[in-house]
Every structure is written in C-alpha cells, then in structure tokens.
Amino acid sequence: MPELPDVELFKRVGERCRGRTIERAVVGDPGLLNGIAAAALERRLRGRRIEGAQRHGKHLFILLGEAGALALHFGTNGSLRLVAEGEAEPPYTRLELRLSGGERLAYLNPRRIGGISLSASRAAFVAAAKLGPDALDPAFDLPAFAALLRRSKRDVKSVLMDQALLAGIGNIYSDEILFQARIFPGTAAKSLDDRAASRLFGAMRETLATAIRCEIGSEQFLTAVPKDFLLSERRQGGHCPRCGAALATVKHGARTGYYCPRCQPH
Ligand SMILES: [Zn+2]
C-alpha cells in the first residue's frame, strides 16, 4: 500500500515531466474521479504545461500552473509510471497523460481504490480534505508531535496512522517506526513520556527518510530494504531482524500489524 515513501518516488516520476505539455488526457476509469466528469477533466488537462510535482502525506499533486493541481491518491496498490513512446499501455491504466516529446504519464490502479481530482492547489486540497501536517514537514517538530500524543485517547499506532493528525503513514510504516523506536503498538499514546515521544519522533523521521533513500517502494522492493528493518521479515512466520524472536501480530480494524514481543514489550 503506497505510503509517504512510495508517493515520494511517484513525485520524482511527476517531476521528470516538468516542462512537458499535456497533448491529450485519457480517462480510463471515470469511477476513480472525484468531483469532475471524465470529459471535463480531459478538456481541462489538455494543453496544460506540467510545472512540477508536490506531495502531502500519501497524496501527489501534478502542478498545472493556473489550471491548479491534478491530485492523485493511490489507494492500496496504485502507482505512477512514465511510459516510453511505442511501449504498450500498462495494465490498469486509469488515467493517461500524453505528453509532448512522446512519453505518457500513466496512473495505474489495479484495485480501483484511491482517487483523481482537480484542485486549485496542494494547500487547497489539504485544507478541504482536513489532512494533518505531512510527517516529514520540517515545521512539524517534536513539541508538536508530543502534544499530539498527549491529546489522544487512543493507542500510538492508531495515532500514527490517523491522516487527520499526521499525513503519510499507514499500516506498514507505523509498524516499522514503532519497531525502530521499540514501542509496543497498543501503548496508549498519552502514556508515552518525553523520552519515548522523542525516540518515536526520531524513529519516524529516520525511518521515512531511510525508506526514501533506499527507494523501498521501487521494483527492487525487498533487496532495497535495510536488514534491520522489520519490513524484511514482516509476514506470517517472520522473525525479528534484531533479536530473532517470532513476530507477533495485532489487529487494527481490518489491518494486521506486526511487532516483536521481545523488543517491543507491553
Ligand atoms: Zn526483537
């Protein structure tokens, strides 16, 4: 499931299109459009110049100058690809932007969860969607993070995954961050003392930055994951990469979280 580090890689794909003009936009699946019809979106994208890409949490924005920003969400297994001239259309292409120069920017989404919309800007989208600060926003500092933990009545994993409090982290990276910080996922957020909050904040920043640096979301997926990451063992029957204990699971709604019962004691 694409989380902040994965979407950061999609942002780089979008940035490679900077300066290109959208010669034609083709909506492959109107069911993913939010607040705009296929014909209207195709018309509004046509002829626009791509001026760059931005990210907020798990959302990506393709900047289109005065036409605003094309907002993309990747749901559970969406992605963004630059397709070479002459290359066949990748399966599950839900939106294709045919660019000047011959390449196409393809938004793929096999499971059709996620969304495509047009917004005035990233800031306008973030405000309307009521998203919390991006987890890597330099302005979101330790005091702000600690305050957020103190205010919550929930467990720390739920707080990390709540996009209205903090944008970008889902099931996989909340597990990783808690593992790196050695904190049990079911710990009440407000019970964490200053030292634990600081350790968790550091682990959040470091884990996300490492994932981006290693390009974990790319196709090399497992070879790119650092050996001390829970991700390399995060499955049924997996073992802690630090101490070798069998990993345990914890249910969060429909999701299964993984942790090491020895390194992250209750
Ligand atoms: Zn362990």
Account of the 3D structure:
- This protein has 266 residues and is α+β, with helices and mostly antiparallel strands.
- The chain has eight helices and ten strands.
- The chain has helices at residues 4-15, 38-45, 122-128, 142-151, 156-161, 171-181, 194-213, 221-224, and strands at 22-27, 52-56, 59-63, 69-73, 79-83, 93-99, 104-108, 115-119, 248-252, 255-259.
- The strands form three sheets. It has a four-stranded antiparallel β-sheet with strand order 1-6-7-5.
- Strand 2 and strand 3 (59-63) form a beta hairpin.
- Helix 1 (4-15) runs parallel beside helix 7 (194-213).
- The chain is globular, with a radius of gyration of 20 Å.
- The structure holds zinc ion.
- Zinc ion is lined by residues 240, 242-243, 245, 260, 262-263.
- Zinc ion binds next to loops.
In summary, what is this structure?
This protein has eight helices and ten strands. It has helices at residues 4-15, 38-45, 122-128, 142-151, 156-161, 171-181, 194-213, 221-224; strands at residues 22-27, 52-56, 59-63, 69-73, 79-83, 93-99, 104-108, 115-119, 248-252, 255-259.
Quote the distance from N terminus to C terminus. 27 Å
For the largest sheet, list the strands in their spatial order. Answer: 1-6-7-5
Bound molecules: zinc ion
Name the overall outline: globular
SSE class:
alpha+beta
Number of helices: 8
Strand content: 15-25%
